[in-house]
Amino acid sequence: MKGYGGRPLRLMEVCGTHTAGIFRSGLRSVISPRIRLISGPGCPVCVTPTAYIDKCVEYALTAGFALVSFGDMLKVPGSNAASLERAKGFGARVELVYSPFDVIAMAQREPGTVFVIAAVGFETTAPAYALLMDELAARGVENVRLLTALKSALPAIDWCIRTESSEGALPPSVSSDLSDPARYAIDGFLCPGHVSVITGSGVYWPLAEKYGKPFVVAGFEEAHLVDAIYELVRLAAGGDSPAPCMPPASSGAALVSNCYSEAVSAEGNAKAREIVDNYFERGSAVWRGLGTIADSGLYLRERYASFDAGSRALTEDASLPKGCRCADVITGRIDPKDCPMFGGACTPENAQGPCMVSSEGACGIWHAAEGR
Q1: Rounded to 5 degrees, what are φ and ψ at 328?
Q2: Are 104 and 142 within 8 A, CB to CB?
Q3: How far is CA 195 from CA 99, 201, 223, 264, in A?
Q4: What is the pLDDT of residue 133?
């Protein structure tokens, strides 16, 4: 790929783990400068809206409640830079867990406390919360609630493509330059491996056919990434040489390749999707910095409303901090280092924007890779 001399390509890796793997393996230094790898909205923590963080803080500070969360949520700023970590300094009760199932023992020990789980993630983590619901019902545990910020990556990919040159569809936080529509065009997508295990590679066929752009499913090891990027370049450049990856499963999916066939099938994990569909339904959701994206959220169905902690009411999102360009970062309009706050006013220790908070956020990954 170092010798690629075709037209310039902008290829988006949707998954933050891919971004980290690309930096770790040094792949950016061995590909042609005509191939630009850009980050996408693949970090669920980074796109969680401020209203959600504020609600988590509210529960953590309320007597009789405990907020249950993974550690990567602690530093995410809500309104006025409030975060769960800062709230702990004011006596907020925040319980850190390594698995959602840890909440069961907590709830059984303290039946008088309501444990609210910060359920954040994409298709990969949604089955775990569905299985948790099964277990809560089986054990008769009634003092657990879910505050969901579960999202689907597919509508966000569709949103990124639709808004490449449409100023009217963009929130104020996202840059636009209609004098040069090609400036923000994405030529192909490196599809998230973990998400694709659940959804299957077949879910990308309609998007590929609709927009005429290639989608390549990738694993996470260096060899996986090399194969997948090579394949994506081949498809994006219109090449007709034999594909190094598993051939498309149907003639209508010529722009989709699966380079992670040891873990991903065309159909995906039907059992996981079935249990998710039993408990959750689709609805519009707010993505931090991007606004509302239709059918991109997963919410508990009405028959399980007693387990919901008010997820559907979280429809507002505060503006990003002045100078923060996280919205441009997660839509591939700029690299993290092009944000004026990067590495100065905004660092992992003093994150101003959500992309710097998580280990899967593009800014956090770039900051760590550059040793700043």
Answers
A1: -70, -30
A2: no
A3: 18, 10, 19, 9
A4: 97
The contacts of residue 230 (CB under 8 Å, 6+ apart) are: 1, 244
Cα→Cα distances 152→247, 286, 287, Å: 26, 12, 11
Placement of tokens 């969360």 in the chain: 69
Report yes or no: 184 and 36 within 8 Å, Cβ to Cβ.
no
Instruction: Report the alpha-carbon distance of residue 203 to residue 353 in Å, rounded.
Output: 31
Residue pLDDT, tens place only, 120-132: 999 999 999 999 9
Reading the block at residue 334, the tokens are: 């700029």
Tokens 């891919």 locate to 18
Q: How far is CA 238 from CA 5, 7, 202, 206, 208, in A?
A: 13, 10, 21, 19, 14
pLDDT at 77: 84
Chain Cα centroid distance, residue 301: 22
Cα separation, 363 vs 45, in Å, equals: 13
| pLDDT at residue 90 in the model | 92
* Cβ contacts of 68 within 8 Å, gap of 6 or more: 94, 95, 97, 100, 102, 103, 106, 115, 116, 117, 118
**DSSP assignment of 258-274, as one string?**
ES-TTT--SS--HHHHH
Could you tell me which residues are beta bridge partners of residue 258? 217, 246
Name which of 229, 302, 259, 270 is nearest 123 in CA terms.
270
- The domains located in the chain, with CATH, are 1-154+188-319 (3.40.50.11740), 326-369 (no CATH)
Measured CA to CA, the distance from residue 99 to residue 331 in angstroms comes to 30
Question: 185 near 202, Cβ under 8 Å?
Answer: no
Q: What residues does 293 pair with on adjacent strands?
A: 285
Low-confidence ranges of the chain (pLDDT < 50): 168, 178-179, 241-242, 249-252, 372
Show the tokens assigned to 281: 């339904």
CA 168 to CA 175: how far, in whole Å?
11
Q: Global pTM?
A: 0.89
Coil, helix or strand for 336? helix
The CA-CA-CA angle for residues 73, 329, 225, to 5°, reads 85
Q: Are 1 and 233 in contact (CB under 8 A)?
A: yes
